[in-house]
Amino acid sequence: MRHPSDPVPVRSDQRRWAAPTGCALTVCRGCCCGSTRKHPDVDHAGQVDQLRALVGTDHRVRITDDCLDACERSNVVVVHPSGAGRAAGARPVWFGFVLDDSAVDDIAAWVRAGGPGVAPLPDVLDLYVMPAPGPTARR
Ligand code: FES
After folding, report:
1. Domain 24-133 belongs in CATH node 3.40.30
2. Per-residue model confidence as pLDDT tens for the chain (139 residues)
3. How far is the CA of 56 from the centre of ligand 1 (A)?
4. Cα-to-chain-centroid distance, residue 49
5. Per-domain boundaries in the chain
6. Could you tell me the pTM of the whole model?
């Protein structure tokens, strides 16, 4: 299974992935995340649009069709640190149950503030933080 830190193939309708100077966000849209069958009350496409609009052009939002192996916590979003965050030793931060606009707003605000390794994680996001699944938790 591909780790979200690895380059992700992009769908033809997306911009090619380029190393961002800001944070990179991986939005899972595998079998459960983004599923209207599993989460019929969520505007999944709107959630991605909201996230992209809120983080602006300093950060990248990419979608993966590959399940990130955490379906029990769908929808999953992974925030990868910026260059400054990586230099500070930060690792990607995983969020689960990202199903409402306020969660998207809070994640985007934290990313705009600098994200992992740069800005402290707001208490409100503690509700959504999850361990990276499987062997990636040991990386
Ligand atoms: S579809 Fe997102 S974790 Fe499985």
Report:
1. yes
2. 556 555 555 454 444 554 458 999 999 999 999 999 999 999 999 999 999 999 999 999 999 999 999 999 999 999 999 999 999 999 999 999 999 999 999 999 999 999 999 999 999 999 999 999 976 544 4
3. 25
4. 13
5. 24-133
6. 0.84
- How does 15-27 read in b/e, with b if 16+ C-beta sit within 10 Å? eeeeebebbbbbb
The encoded tokens of residue 117 equal 């390794």
Using the atom order of ligand 1, give the atom closest to the CA of residue 35.
1
Q: Is the CB of 27 under 6 A from ligand 1?
A: no
For residue 33, how many C-alpha atoms fall within 13 Å in the half-sphere facing its CB?
26
Q: How far apart are CA 25 and CA 110, in angstroms?
A: 12
Give me ligand 1 centre to Cα 13, in Å: 21
Is any atom of ligand 1 closer than 6 Å to the C-beta of 70? yes
